[in-house]
Design a protein that fits this description.
182 residues, Ribosomal Protein S5, domain 2, 37% helix
Length: 182
């Protein structure tokens, strides 16, 4: 099983996470912010991963940032060195919103975002940097920020589900025993 347990405690936040990549989409999340909790439950369901998370913080910004960092660290550790599909994308409509997310789980962190909410831009950037994932999002339509952010989490989940699929060989032209995914 590809899984990981990560915890992070600072003067500002305390986050504990258990993640299982070969899951069924079950979420046991307790977080001070209901919208963040809803987005994490959504990501979990669409990615078909199991996630347990406990998170508390002194303010919204620190909470969102540290949850993203711990989630990224957990994803990176759980992926290990198992060859995976690595590259995937998904397009998700949600009411007025239409969002595309494309990812590469290559251990080269990069992010190019179109997101109407600065705190969730920060979430996706922190997730990419701590996990080593390349993330691109395209906000094609949508005027309701809630719908755009939620469609982005759904699309990221679907893309993760595809990209995390195990494969026979490493998908790389540079493969060697000393190179992790890349």
């Amino acid at each position: 099983m590809r899984k990981s347990e990560i915890s992070r405690k600072t003067r500002e936040t305390e986050v504990a996470l258990s993640i299982e990549l070969d899951g069924k989409g079950s979420a046991d999340i307790q977080c001070q912010d209901q919208f963040l909790q809803h987005m994490l439950e959504t990501l979990t369901k669409y990615a078909s991963i199991n996630l347990e998370l406990r998170a508390a913080g002194d303010n919204y910004h620190h909470l969102v940032e540290d949850v993203a960092m711990v989630l990224g660290m957990g994803l990176k550790e759980a992926m290990g060195d198992v060859p995976i599909e690595r590259v995937a994308h998904a397009v998700v409509p949600m009411d007025d919103a239409l969002v595309t997310v494309a990812i590469d789980l290559i251990d080269r962190p990069y992010v190019d975002l179109e997101c109407p909410d600065p705190i969730y831009m920060h979430f996706f950037r922190s997730l990419a940097m701590s996990s080593g994932i390349t993330i691109h999002t395209i906000h094609m339509r949508g005027y309701d920020d809630h719908h755009v952010v939620e469609a982005t989490f759904k699309a990221l989940g679907l893309a993760l589900r595809k990209a995390l699929t195990p494969r026979e060989e490493l998908l790389s032209t540079k493969s060697s025993p000393n190179v992790r995914r890349g």
